[in-house]
Amino acid sequence: MAAPPILAVTGVDKTFTMHLQGGQLLPVLRGLTFEVHAGECVALGGVSGAGKSSILKMVYGNYAADRGNIVLWCPGADADGGIDGAVDIAAADPRQVLRARRDTMGYVSQFLRCVPRVGALQVVAEPLVERGVPTAQARERAARLLTRLAIPERLWSLPPATFSGGEQQRVNIARGFVTELPLLLLDEPTASLDARNRDVVTELIREKRARGVAMLGIFHDAVVRDAVADRVVGVEMFASAVRAAA
Ligand SMILES: Nc1ncnc2c1ncn2[C@@H]1O[C@H](COP(=O)(O)OP(=O)(O)OP(=O)(O)O)[C@@H](O)[C@H]1O
User: Fold this and answer.
1) Is residue 163, in this structure, part of any structural domain at all?
2) Is residue 36 a part of any domain in this protein?
3) Full strand arrangement of the beta sheet holding 67-73
């Protein structure tokens, strides 16, 4: 029997309510349906405003879906209330969402958000330490990634708040890539990188894919998208009828 997808999104609708504009409704997605399997990198495509980032945020549990299912399947996981390690993020309670984030999915957002006064090496090692990896081993893995991403060693003990935009993004990528979770969500991971670092990130994505990690990402850079994505899900296909007609 074929393995179930790591992520199955089925019939998801999303409408935003603009509270600052008298509760005006902004329908964005209707009937969003796609799957991502282990070892597959799926890109979300579509024009600006189509809803790509909102999809990542719904999968990560930051935005609620109005309808439909967002099922994460993690082999061997005993998700509370789940069946065979499956958890529906669209219906999960906050505790289940936090657990899914710890055990199943990572998220590389566009910008680094980290605690002030914590050095870059520790920022990158933290997700491993939180999951029980001994500190020395976590710092070693963090150091290897920072080296690959060309963050000079003299910066490792400094807090990334003062780093350049590209340096912060590379620390952010290292933090997102340091764990080996079954699903990784990538929101424009190469947006402010130079060509050399863009190639390193492309390599890191391809290595994860080869190790069986499922990835769902937004890649505006067509060169990166072509190099890493197995297929593209066109989000406009799922534009709400009201929005499509506008
Ligand atoms: N929290 C929010 N509240 C209200 N409207 C929102 C919210 N988040 C997104 N939207 C709206 O939903 C639509 C989709 O936004 P989203 O950021 O998902 O698009 P996108 O396809 O990722 O765009 P881009 O490629 O420009 O980043 C936009 O019209 C946006 O203004």
Assistant:
1) no
2) yes
3) 24-36, 7-18, 67-73, 86-88
d(CA 106, CA 115): 18
116: in domain: no
- With CA atoms as reference, report the closest residue to 172 among 161, 183, 181: 161
Q: How far apart are CA 170 and CA 111, in angstroms?
A: 10
Q: Are 121 and 143 within 8 A, CB to CB?
A: yes
Q: What is d(CA 123, CA 95) in angstroms, rounded to the nearest whole number?
A: 24
Count of C-beta atoms within a 10 Å radius of residue 73: 24
Q: What pLDDT digit, counting tens, does each position of 201-237 carry?
A: 999 999 999 999 999 999 999 999 999 999 999 999 8
- Any idea what the CATH number is for the domain that residue 19 is in? 3.40.50.300
Total domains, the chain = 1
Distance CA 128, CA 140 (A): 11
Cα–Cα dist 185/77, whole Å: 19
Q: Are 36 and 214 in contact (CB under 8 A)?
A: yes
Tokens found for residue 173: 């990528």
Residue to mutate, 25, 28, 237, ligand 1, most ligand atoms under 8 Å from C-beta:
28
Ligand 1 close to Cβ of residue 17 (< 6 A): no
Range of the domain at 84: 1-104+221-246
pLDDT value of position 192: 80
Question: E-strand spans in 74-122?
Answer: 86-88, 105-108
> Which protein residue has the closest C-alpha to ligand 1 atom 31?
49
Q: Quick one: what percent of the chain has pLDDT higher than 70?
A: 92
